[in-house]
Amino acid sequence: MLQGDGIKSTVYKLLSPEDKISQGIKHESTIEFVDCLLYTAINVHASDIHIQPEEDRARIRFRIDGTLYDQEDVSSEISKLVISRIKILAGLDIATQRLPQDGKIKILMYENFGRTHIIDLRISTFPSTYGEKMVVRILDREYNLLELESLGFDKPLFESVKNLVSKPHGFFLVTGPTGAGKTTTLYAMLSYLNNPGKNIITMEDPVEYALDGITQSQVNEKAGFIFQNGLRSLLRQDPDIIMIGEIRDKITAQIAIEAALTGHMVFSTLHTNDAAGAVTRLLDMDVEPFLISATLTGVIAQRLARKLCSSCKKTIDNSTFKNLENLSTQSYVSNGCSKCFNLGHSGRIGIFELLVLDEKIKNLIVQKSSNEVIQKQAKENGMITLQDDGIQKVKSGQISLDEFLSTIAM
User: Which of 171, 338, 374, 409 is most buried, with most CB under 10 Å away?
Assistant: First the structure.
């Protein structure tokens, strides 16, 4: 992996409490507390740890499946020691508390039979009224990096996605709000396409996970390595497949389209609410309609919803809910059990819609048609919308009705 952010990653060995006892490692309060905090968060598959100072205490929260959950509070004194300990592990300056800092820690987590589990941590501090706030982003490659077939596509949609991403050239977009899992979907696509005969290069901000066999680069604005000049250099590296972390402006969009026109397969993301919105967003960037029509092959819009725990879910009657078409009189809920840490859900699943560009859609793009017109034509072509896919996942018991309603705006 190529990194250009100038942040060094330190390596730390994380042992379970049982392993420490068996190896005769002595108890040291702050070190032990930090180890226990990290170990617990990783075991419950938290994506982030928040250490938030308040007037007379510090609040600790874990983000699990997109939602923050309070843990036991600690005193302000312990919070300061914990933050200092993590800053030392990340190679940060413990004396600097009035400026934000960023760092990395690579954890070697020892498990049964001597197996090691590699986990990356991104450390971010931020000055606040009552002291430094710290967020630890947990990047667990084994838990979060999914195969393409396990993202939540139904079978017809999965086949369509495979056909589109396997094209020799084109421009493919994944859209959705922040936190919708767009990068995870792109990584799954790159992993599916990765083979020794392909030269795959990415430009990201930041690099989330290291992908074996793929050249990954990271934006470094301080050094002048930004998307515009980085992408032009990338094109001279003889790539077959290019992944751009995000289309942010007209210049980035034009370079991506230029690459697709010259025989490359280009993947990227946009922040839009639906698949058709990606087209109008590119038009708003003043990208020529005929270029969009000539290069764009498909757009996925997606959301992430919490999956019901399979061990404790049960059916409920929702016959009084009349506002959703095609919804059966029964749906599912989970009250929580030991297997899901009493949360009622375990992991997340994608809700998708796929816009495939046929001649009718391309003609609408050339005419600079509105989002609504393109969406209507896509539905006539048979597109399954986010709402349709979400309702199907409610009916099949993968997600609850409440989760669907909170995830998909009706």
Answer: 171
Of 298, 294, 241, 239, the closest CA to residue 266 belongs to 241
pLDDT digits (tens, 9 = 90+) for 143-166: 766 789 989 999 999 999 999 999
Name the percent of the chain in helix, strand, coil, to the closest 5: 35, 30, 35
Is 17 within 8 Å of 36 (Cβ atoms)? yes
Residues 323-347 pLDDT 10s: 565 666 678 888 889 888 889 999 9
Phi, psi of 22 (to 5 degrees): -65, -30
Cβ atoms of residues 365 and 279 within 8 Å: yes
**Contact by Cβ (8 Å): 305, 281:** no
Q: Could you give the CA distance from residue 237 to residue 169 in angstroms, rounded to a whole number?
A: 16
DSSP letters, 170-216, are EEEEEE-STTSSHHHHHHHHHHHH--TT--EEEEESS--S--TT-EE
Q: Could you tell me which residues are beta bridge partners of residue 173?
A: 268, 299
Listed in order, strand segments (DSSP E) in 275-395 are 296-308, 313-317, 330-334, 345-356
Give, in order, the Cα–Cα distances in Å from 89 to each of 41, 60, 78, 206: 17, 19, 17, 20
Cβ atoms of 265 and 241 within 8 Å: the answer is: yes
Read off the pTM.
0.85
